[in-house]
Design goal:
single chain; about 300 residues; alpha/beta; Rossmann fold; 5-stranded mixed sheet; 15 strands; about 35% helix; rod-shaped
């Protein structure tokens, strides 16, 4: 039998269902939590990058690296999400921009330091020599590989002070390619050091060679005369020969007219004055000082 009172009572109970109200509270709480999480992760200043530190630099300016990183995290994504957010910071873009700007940078590591720091670790190339060949100049690393084009106006001062080897052959320089063996690089560095310390001779920063593979190395002194070296003879032996000739064959007054000294033949030194024919000392044997040096080392 129809009972209107009971139907109204059932409708009233259905409107007050505790299950529906709990579900409403659940979704409301979830949306509030989600909104708070989005705010904290993307908009809160708690995760904004406020400090950028740079370590490991020697030739590259850490301040310049910091400026590049700051420029990459300035502004906003999609016009409303801050780019300086620690979680969204474009580390790959920062590393690429720094590498493109500084050829001396070999490796980069970017680490997030919570809550608001970004650490940039830099590993630089160890430059050893500038090589110019076939119209191009590149800086070589300690292994003799070309890693950075050389430009005297824009390169760091430390790079400008490197020895420069000019090759008159047609060898093309390719970035990343090993152009010289380490033996030639160390040979030139040793020759420069020993000439200054043993003979008080300073050389120009530019060294010439007719071919890279020849081992024929021609240094020019600050007094405008040249010394021809060969890496097939040790620097120690060649400097000993040079000492003998300068002491016995060439007076200090004659040095001003000297054109070159050729040390490329064992125990023979060819030399030439600007207004005379070439001469040779066929017995330019340095004094045997090696045993004494061995005693000193002991």
């Amino acid at each position: 039998m129809y009972q209107p009172g009971r139907l109204g009572e059932r409708r009233k109970k259905k409107g007050r269902s505790p299950i529906s109200f709990a579900r409403f509270l659940y979704w409301l709480s979830f949306l509030i939590f989600l909104g708070a999480l989005v705010y904290v992760l993307f908009f809160s200043p708690y995760l904004a990058v406020e400090k950028i530190t740079v370590s490991g630099t020697d030739l590259v300016s850490p301040a310049e690296i910091q400026k590049i990183a700051e420029a990459k995290i300035s502004g906003k994504w999609l016009d409303f999400i801050p780019r300086n957010n620690l979680l969204l910071s474009d580390r790959q873009g920062i590393a690429q921009a720094i590498s493109e700007q500084f050829g001396l940078v070999k490796n980069l590591s970017l680490k997030k330091k919570f809550p608001n720091g970004l650490e940039i670790g830099v590993t630089e190339y160890r430059s050893s020599l500038i090589l110019c060949s076939n119209g191009d100049c590149f800086v070589l690393d300690q292994e003799g590989a070309a890693f950075m084009p050389y430009d005297s106006e824009n390169s760091p001062e430390a790079v400008n002070n490197l020895l420069r080897l000019v090759n008159y052959g047609d060898r093309k320089i390719n970035k990343g390619e090993k152009m010289l063996p380490f033996s030639i690089i160390s040979y030139l560095q040793e020759a420069e050091t020993e000439l200054a310390s043993r003979l008080n001779l300073e050389i120009e920063r530019e060294i010439e060679t007719p071919q890279l593979a020849s081992g024929d190395l021609r240094l020019k002194t600050k007094d405008s005369w040249q010394i021809y070296f060969s890496n097939e003879i040790t620097v120690e032996k060649e400097l000993g020969m040079l000492e003998v000739v300068l002491a016995e064959k060439i007076t200090p007054e004659q040095k001003t007219d000297l054109e070159y000294l050729d040390l490329r033949t064992d125990n023979k030194v060819y030399y030439k004055f600007r207004h005379s024919e070439p001469a040779v000392d066929e017995n330019a044997q340095p004094e045997k000082t090696q045993p004494e040096k061995k005693k000193d080392k002991k």
